[in-house]
Each structure stands twice: as structure tokens, then as C-alpha cells.
# Entry
Amino acid sequence: MKAAVIEEFNNIIIKEVPKPQLGYDEALIKVEYAGICGTDVHIFAGHHKQAKPPLIPGHEFVGRLAEVNTDKPINFKIGQRVAAQPLTGCGKCELCIQGRDNVCVDLNIFGVHSNGCFAEYIKVPLKKVYSVPETIDPKIVALVEPLAVAMHDVRRSNLLVGQTALIIGGGPIGILIAMVAKLNGASKVVISEINEKRVKFAEDMDMGFDVINPLKGNIDEKIKGVTHNMGFDVVYEVSGVQAGADLMTKAAKIGGTIMMIGIPTKSYIVDTGAVTLKELEMRGVRIHSQINFAAAVDAIKNNVFNDKLKRLVTNEFDIEDVKKALEFSIKDKDHFKVLLKVSK
# Structure
């Protein structure tokens, strides 16, 4: 099959590789579209500690069921359009038993620890596969994985109806978290973003978000103004930079919750004094659990905000231009989601 292989960091080529061979209870999916994630960019540039070449990257995808290997009854048909959660756990440890295989000590993320979806075919456990209607644009379905991340982040925050939420960072995940928080009943959703084109994009989503640029004006006064001097019930730190860490403890209300989502390239300082004095709760998140991936699939199946999701796709490249697509994703600061067209 045709695949994009990182043979060494900063070098990815299209080459013929063996098609994956299925084990028991596995499915083979012919990939239609694959999304480029920040993780893929970090792997390509050699900034990911766990991914090692040679590797086929990619973990966001939609495709068609090509083959299954099982003797159990299944609710799928060959040729049906599907999405699949791109990770596996051991299935036996305490965390996996709790449904938290996303933090299994033997976690395997496709495109990171094993070959991913920047290829004509990818194999996945059958239990990770979900069917989607033919009527839904496959480019929207390709966003189910980042939407699952947002679902996981908001659910883990225990955001309640009527509460307020601040999202620090208005990139794709930040926008998706804002959308899910609004859907979850937040009374006020504010995005903090310094890129003016992304500020305009978030405002044009027309979902009732307020957007503030912390570089323009007094950010402390802006936060007091939109929260009536209270601060936010939940702060989602998505930026992964020091400025975001500085803002999150200031912006959270007394007794509020901070969700650590953005992964910093280097360790930053957190105001632990504010965490103590304000009795803040801080939670980490990693990828998404399967129940939240299923929730994202259901949201897309039921057209909850598919028209908004489609707007996030700002650029598309053919798989043959994967290197150009990755380099574009590194250099261009204004795009949102970049998709690779893998096969027809």
C-alpha cells in the first residue's frame, strides 16, 4: 500500500509498504481523509519524546471498512464509512477496567507508538470502530478525534449548566472546547487568543463566544468585567505556554477548576500560591476515553454542529504533498485544520 513514512526527523516520503495483516477481532480501514494534528507536527520535527522513526504518523481519520477478521456478529458492512478511536490499552489494568484506557501504562496511540493513518490502509481493533452515515461529509467525520478530545476535556472538568468558562488558546482544540462547553450549558464562554485572525474566526463562528486578546488592554480588568469580579468557574489552558499558565490562576475564581490541556515544549512556572489561596482544583487530561469518542461520533451523527465543524477545515493537501502540508502546518499561524486526502 501507499504510505507516508517519517524515515528520519524532518523527512517524510511516500513509499510502498506492506498492507497491515489483521489479527483476530481487528478491522482494516481504507483511509479517505486524515487530519494533521500538532502531535504529528512535533513528531515530524523530532520534538516528540516517544515517537521514533521509521513511522507512519497520523491518528485523525475517516475511511471505509475494507476487511474484518472475527467470527462474532458485527453491525458493519464492508464498504461502509467508519471512524475509529486511534488508541489501545492493555485491557487488563485497573485503569482500562475503569474505562480509562487513554491513560493505560501500556498505551498505544496510532501514529505515535505504532503506525498511523497517513497511509492507504490502517488496522484497528474492531471494538474501536464506529459507523457513520453516508449523508455526512467525510471531511466533517475526519474531525471526530479532535472533537472527542474536547468532549473529554469538558466532561472531566465537570462544567455545570450556568457556569462560566475561559479557554486560553483559540486554535482548533480551543474552539472545539468552546463549542462543547456552550453545548454543555455554560452561561458564558470566553476565548483568550492573541492571533487576530483567530480572534476574528472565533467571533465569526456565531456561537455566542466572547473573545479577548490579552495583549490589548488590561486583561485583569477584562476578566473582572465579564465575570462580575468573580473569575471563571472553569479555565481550560490549551496554549501550553508560560503566558497561559500565568493567566489561568489569575482568571479562575476562588474554588474554581483549571484543566491542563496544552502540552508545553518546556516546563513552565505555575503560581502554586494562587492554587493554595484560592483552593483551586487542577486536572490533567490525555487524549480521550472511548466513551467520549463515542459521544463525539454521536454528535456528528446527529448533526449537532456539523456546519460549524466544517468551517474548521481551512486547508487540504493530497497525501503525495504530505511534507508540504506538514511544513505549512509549522509555518502558517492562521490555519485551523489541515486535511490530507488519502484516497477516493
